[in-house]
Amino acid sequence: MARQSLQLELAERPKGEIEVGKTFRLRKVDAPTEADLKEGELLLECLYVSLDPAMRGWLDDRRSYVPPVQIGEVMRAGAIARVLASRSAKAKPGDIVTATMGIREVGIMPEAAVEPASRLPLDRTGGKVTDLLGVLGMTGLTAYFGMTKIGEPKAGETVVVSAAAGATGSVAAQIAKIAGARVIGTAGSEEKCRWLKEELGLDVALNYKDPDFKEKFKAATPNYIDVFFDNVGGEQLDMALGRANKFARFVMCGGISQYNAETKSGPTRNFFNVISQRIKMQGFIVFDFATEYGTALKQLAQWLGEGKLQRKETIVRGGVAAAEEGLQQLFRGANIGKLMVEVKNPEEVSRL
Ligand SMILES: NC(=O)c1ccc[n+]([C@@H]2O[C@H](COP(=O)([O-])OP(=O)(O)OC[C@H]3O[C@@H](n4cnc5c(N)ncnc54)[C@H](OP(=O)(O)O)[C@@H]3O)[C@@H](O)[C@H]2O)c1
């Protein structure tokens, strides 16, 4: 019998939160085979698929930095995959690669969309294959460029990172520590705050669900904020504007608190501090820095190898079928560090 491949397709556009069993549909299709490959293509078997807050935005039919996922299309997602067959010089069968192959078990990708893992010194850094989606993947790169190119923290400055225990935030916060800044992270649980303080060495970690959060935030920023790396938006962004130093840099990376909201809310009370405190507020998309990925990855890998960067990952088991609920959980803070789904244990033998 032909090998089957399970895939997650968009069934309908959610209005608010993703609804398990409604937003997506699981479908089994005949897996493509080596015989289907054209010149320059690779047949890939997914090992891990990335779950990202941005996925919620890709479900809305509106202008953005990438086209929306269409109804019936396989949900877009970055993945770590193993090459099953290849008609490309870029990778051979058995090689590990990364590719935006979507949430599916098996797929064919053009060589231009495939990056061999061998470009990264995983072995020399004590790195593991899952780092390709985290600290040595898109979220690590996002943290690197946002912090070094836009935030540009200097020794002694105060840096605040929201969603600091997440994949992007945790790396961004540590990069600011490496630069010699005083770093404050916000996160949604005591366990996350302990990790930030005790293992990542942040100066202060604040639980935004604490009833005294506002007072604690103010007390933690006596010299105001020089760099705010924002992953959350909404109320936390407004609070950071209220505590911004003159000429502060606001790195607008994401606004997860608003992604599911049908009516968006943003900075209100303190917005005009942008003017009174001469704040530079800049949004960015990691792809803007694509030509510099190589340099950034080298630096991230070096820090990882030197033990200057710590990372965690939260791996959801259960394969493609578990991805939908995993994505919903991302918006409930279920992860520490990078969230991904194990689609296939890399120790298992592959099968064409
Ligand atoms: N600009 C770019 O190119 C780019 C690239 C990648 C990611 N991003 C953005 O970076 C941010 C982080 O992404 P990531 O992939 O690293 O995810 P992540 O931080 O690993 O996971 C998301 C975290 O957000 C927090 N969160 C969820 N709902 C929240 C809410 N209502 N209020 C406050 N915190 C909430 C949760 O942690 P808590 O327990 O702390 O709530 C959750 O663990 C997102 O905004 C994403 O869109 C931007």
Automatic annotation (TrEMBL):
It comes from Parathielavia appendiculata. Pfam families: ADH_N_2, ADH_zinc_N. Gene3D superfamilies: Medium-chain alcohol dehydrogenases, catalytic domain, NAD(P)-binding Rossmann-like Domain. Residues 21-341 form the Enoyl reductase (ER) domain. SMART domains: PKS_ER. This is Dehydrogenase FUB6. Keywords: Oxidoreductase. CDD domains: PGDH (cd05288). GO terms for molecular function: oxidoreductase activity, acting on the CH-CH group of donors, NAD or NADP as acceptor. InterPro entries: ADH-like_C, ADH_N_2, ER, GroES-like_sf, MDR_fam, NAD(P)-bd_dom_sf.
